[in-house]
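Comment thread on ticket #2218

A.B. wrote:
> Attaching the input chain for the structure job we discussed in standup.
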Amino acid sequence: MSSVYLCGFMGCGKSHIGRMLAAVTDRKFVDLDRVIVEREGMSIPDIFAQYGEPHFRTLEAKYIRELSDGYIVATGGGALINDSTAEFARQSGLSVYINTSFENCYQRIKNDANRPLVVNNTKQQLEELYNTRAVIYKRNSMCMVNGNTKDVIIRSEIKKLLEYYEEHGTI
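C.D. wrote:
> Ran it. Output below, let me know if you need it in another format.
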């Protein structure tokens, strides 16, 4: 059974939708950020502070490779901006970009002290990052869903994509 890799900007709903999707697909939900925190024994802000963002991206690439056997994976906001990690996700499952507007994402993340990129950047800088990453998410994902609608609709759309993928082996 292949995994589903949910990608998109911070606050787009990857974890929430991932939990909902797992409940209707008999797959286990895994949040990649939580895997990193548990396995590294450090918070994400501590990893960023001690080792920097490039090290964190290396950890994402390392641990995502362990989650290819039938999981619903909420990737970190930057996990699939790495071309080789994105290629791995495409080869081992279905990668889906949850395309949620910047304003919706920002409202969800603006006060989250556990997100180093939010703490260390202005709203304008985050919007620039969002715009840069949106192009990469589109390029590095197999398909895209509208993240600006009701949760059950997003979940249903991804479930249909997964069913099609499993039946035909491609999107």
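A.B. wrote:
> Thanks. Noting for the ticket: The chain has a mean pLDDT of 93.
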